[in-house]
Amino acid sequence: MPRFRLLATFTFLLFTIPSISEAREAKPNFVFFLVDDLGYMDISPNNPHTFYETPNLERLAQQGMRFTNGYAANPVCSPTRYSLMTGKYPTRVQATNFFAGKREGRFRPAPLNDRMPLSEVTLAEALKPQGYKTAFLGKWHLGPTEEFWPENQGFDINVGGFQRGLPPGGYFSPYKNPRLEDGPKGEHLTRRLTDEAINILDGVGDEPFLLYLSFYTVHTPLQAPKPLVEKYRRKASKLPNAVEFESEEQVWPTDSERKVRVIQNHPTYAAMVETMDTSIGRVLDHLEKLGLTDNTVICFTSDNGGLSTSEGSPTSNLPFRGGKGWVYEGGIREPLLIKWPGTTPAGSVCETPICSIDMHPTLCDIADAEAEGLPERDGVSLVSLLKKPETTLDRPLFWHYPHYSNQGGFPGGAVRQGPWKLIERYEDGDCHLFNLEDDPGEKKDLASRFPGRVNELKQLLHAWYVDVDARFLEKREAEQTPWRP
């Protein structure tokens, strides 16, 4: 059977069944783009000098709102994906590392829950009582067995979402994915997921919908169509000679000194970024073709910072420090664009710090789904910011990563309030204080100069640990006494 036929039939049946929303005022549609491992500095709206070409994201930024202080709830994938789906900090269910990372260092990591509980009300489940049809495509990585996969977490359609955090067959067919039928040999995964998304859009009819396109790209393995790789190889060859790597903090022993990439010039990574951007452009164009643009909210973000310290270190997050797997800004500050037609001022910029925990309540608020008795969430609705980008939110943001990351990062927590950010290390309790307005690269530790500010932020962070039932490092050897707050 042709690969689209079964999906198209299923889509038609789903999206043509009358729903309870028929008599209600038309609801906005949602298209949510989530990219894997894309750094804040990897897109041209945030970085006009980036090596990568993202014209469609520029178009989206010009039509909507760009957030300069958008954050992931965690420096690695699964926890942030949990926060996007639930509006909660992942620490509340001990989902504090990628599923299921258990690297040890000086100590053992904190206990890890490697599944999103079925009791959670996901974004899809929150929207369904409002008559929404829901489709998920791409990377899921939120549970080890089928009962935890998208089709059992509120999504009517699941294309490609299962337990793995990277494409097991790589980016070209055959995919070795139980939720994605193989295409012709050599078919490209990012394009295929986009084809499937467009096919779903063709069948939506008059029902409101949530289309959640969660790209596997730009996660390793680093693979892309050869013509694009060659394009960027030529582009890289014209760059002036420069140092590509510098020393990075050594947290756990390695065979060689850990390095961090300080320049963007990786041809394959650049090609992967372009395929993602092209796919987003295709979806935006198809919404326009179908006459859906004016009633469709578009969201775009990433699950953690760019990969800059391991596995080929394909990108640079400068001026931010660190990258994926680190609680420095390079690991948690994300590209974030939102377009709400008729509401967000075109080309606007919001500097208020926000987080992935805010997306669930925001979309529910826009859809008027808050009246359905949803559980309490940690995030807040961003509707006031989407109307007036100068709006501020007087609240701290928190991070908790009690693990040794595959990318070399240390176990630690953090809190940001206003311009101030405190980082607390879990091996010994040492703290670092940074003023992000003056020092976005976290180069100047101000802890010794402002002990009062350190104590104030520590109290906030420690009270939050209690509230979310945070767990910490465990002893690796009998004589050890792990630090506790």
From TrEMBL:
- Supply the Pfam families for this chain: Sulfatase
InterPro entries attached to this UniProt entry? Alkaline_phosphatase_core_sf (IPR017850), Sulfatase (IPR050738), Sulfatase_CS (IPR024607), Sulfatase_N (IPR000917)
Does the keyword Cytoplasm belong to this entry? no
The reply to whether Isomerase figures as a keyword in the UniProt entry is no
Signal sequence region: 1-23
**Entry cofactors:** Ca(2+)
* Keyword annotations of the record: Calcium, Hydrolase, Metal-binding, Signal
Protein name per UniProt: Sulfatase
- The protein's organism comes out as Rubinisphaera brasiliensis (strain ATCC 49424 / DSM 5305 / JCM 21570 / IAM 15109 / NBRC 103401 / IFAM 1448) (Planctomyces brasiliensis)
